[in-house]
């Protein structure tokens, strides 16, 4: 039981220290600076500094629950900024997928429009003509 508590404490401590370092580092990059409002950047930076100081003074002796609580506060504060950055990073891929879908639909529509008049004389062709009118 003591080993389990010690592992949990060390894991929580490591997670919190890593997150503080990661958040400070990210806020120094242009991508994150642009995604954060000045108020958000200041609040995140201030909480990172406060948490880092707390870790140095008493955090190493804190229980895992308190360390996890501090990590949760940081994650909650950074969530919106991190989400904006992720959305910005994924946008080109989403636009490419949209363009691909539009191009596929355009190609499909052109193919249907180019069905010859001979094909319109059979039952399948009449169904295609009805579909063409709907589109």
Automatic annotation (TrEMBL):
Domain of life: Eukaryota
Family from the record: Belongs to the heat shock protein 70 family.
Keyword Methyltransferase on entry: no
GO molecular function list: ATP binding; ATP-dependent protein folding chaperone
Signal peptide extent: none
Protein name, entry field: Hypoxia up-regulated protein 1
Record-linked Gene3D superfamilies: 1.20.1270.10
InterPro entries, per database record: HSP70_C_sf, Hsp_70_fam
Keyword Metal-binding: no
Key words, A-Z: ATP-binding, Chaperone, Nucleotide-binding
Assigned GO CC terms: endoplasmic reticulum chaperone complex
BP term (GO), one: endoplasmic reticulum unfolded protein response
């Amino acid at each position: 039981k003591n080993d389990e508590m010690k592992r949990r404490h060390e894991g929580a401590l490591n997670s919190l220290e890593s997150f503080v370092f990661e958040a400070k580092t990210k806020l120094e990059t242009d991508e994150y600076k642009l995604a954060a409002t000045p108020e958000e950047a200041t609040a995140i930076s201030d909480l990172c500094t406060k948490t880092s100081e707390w870790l140095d003074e008493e955090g190493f002796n804190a229980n895992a629950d308190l360390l996890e609580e501090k990590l949760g506060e940081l994650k909650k504060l950074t969530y919106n900024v991190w989400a904006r950055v992720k959305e910005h990073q994924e946008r080109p891929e989403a636009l490419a997928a949209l363009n691909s879908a539009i191009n596929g639909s355009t190609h499909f529509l052109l193919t249907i429009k180019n069905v010859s008049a001979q094909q319109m004389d059979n039952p399948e062709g009449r169904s295609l003509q009805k579909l063409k009118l709907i589109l």
